[in-house]
């Protein structure tokens, strides 16, 4: 069974090679004349007036946490979806209870304003 | 030992047979996009290089080979160089499980759909690595926006895929296509229409294409996460983006439009008339339709605001998919023919 996955591993390696080769070729064929202004971070032609390592909006963090929550949920739904016909009404109602709880959580975070971006 | 070696060489050849045409498809997708956009604007588009501009992508590619690869002095060089490679490798390797015709699949694995979902999630790392390592404000903002957007639409997409799994009973992409046999009305676009629409919208958002190309936002953050990239390192990001677009189109055809199946199946006269067409042609035709849709959307719709993008992803698409998963579950339990037997 696991041998089926061997081509995937080779593909990943080969895809990386397919990306590395043009970049190597580009660095050999292209010119290399670095200077101070050219290598400065791009800010529309002005010298950068602040470091880019600065704090960012907390809401990105919130989205990441919510993503983990819901992605785990999809991970849980995947195997259930494949065997649904075998587990019948019992499995269906069981998952509906789980989904219902998650929907309550979803409504809660909606009402709390976790999804607002204005 | 020799057997193993031959098997390995055979696998590598098959991979190249997928990857090299993919690169060609990406090149000509850029030309097609420019041509279609041009005709949408009542222009002619590129027509100078070769016959009717057909050599334009080659000229563009060749030019990029001879451009300097700039590594900004403030950047983190290792991550900076690694980011396009990660982006491209994940976008290309997802093609390992796509079935082109019955039996024409590199790795016929049972967890096919799960694998595709995993690799598209990994693509976010390439974006974040590029944005962070560039050490430039625009790149950082672009990467944050893009990552949050991709991650949000990933959920809606995952839920839409759950609906397909429920109907098809399998995560093997080839089995999913075979379950849709029986003609146009048996493909999943009809019984799972809301999920099909959600999947396509999140697919467009996932690849950061117009009208969801907030992450690029050339009017405010120049080009987003790849603003500091130049020459070939930029070209690799470009290839990754287009390879992802083609992948989303291929998945949409496999999951909702019956992959390599003929649309005339089961129709009296037309069915036998078109039975000589090989499946792979149908598959490519369906992919081309979705790719055209990408460009069509870009030519037609203005860009969304960021809060509108998040609103659509979280408050519209996710509730719609949850409701339709429940509906699909009920249809399956009631064995509604002909789709959910």
Concise account of the structure shown:
The complex is a heterodimer of chains A (118) and B (341). Chain A has helices at residues 6-29, 58-112. Chain A has 118 residues and is an all-alpha fold.
List keywords for this structure.
heterodimer; A: 118 residues; Methane Monooxygenase Hydroxylase, Chain G, domain 1; 2 helices; flat; B: 341 residues; 11 helices; globular
Through-space gap between termini of chain B: 48 Å
| Uncertain runs of chain B | none
Rounded to an integer, what's the Rg of chain A over CA atoms?
25 Å
Oligomer: heterodimer
Give the SSE order of chain B as H and E letters.
Answer: HHHHHHHHHHH
What proportion of the residues of chain A form beta strands (DSSP E)?
Answer: under 5%
Number of beta-strand segments of chain A: 0
CATH topology call of chain A: Methane Monooxygenase Hydroxylase, Chain G, domain 1
Helical content of chain B stands at 55-70%
Q: Can you write the helix and strand succession of chain A as a string?
A: HH
Number of domains of chain B: 2
Q: Low-confidence stretches of chain A at least 5 residues in length (pLDDT < 50)?
A: none
Greatest interface and its participating residue counts: A-B, 67 and 86 residues
Explained architecture:
The complex is a heterodimer of chains A (118) and B (341). With 118 residues, chain A is an all-alpha fold. In chain A, 67% of the residues lie in helices and 0% in strands. The longest helix of chain A has 55 residues. With 341 residues, chain B is mostly helical. Chain B folds into two domains: 66 residues; 261 residues, no CATH class. Chain B contains eleven helices and no strands. In chain B, helix 3 runs antiparallel to helix 4. Classes of the chains: A mainly alpha (118), B mainly alpha (341). At the A-B interface, helix 1 and helix 2 of A face helix 1, helix 3, helix 4, helix 5 and helix 8 of B.
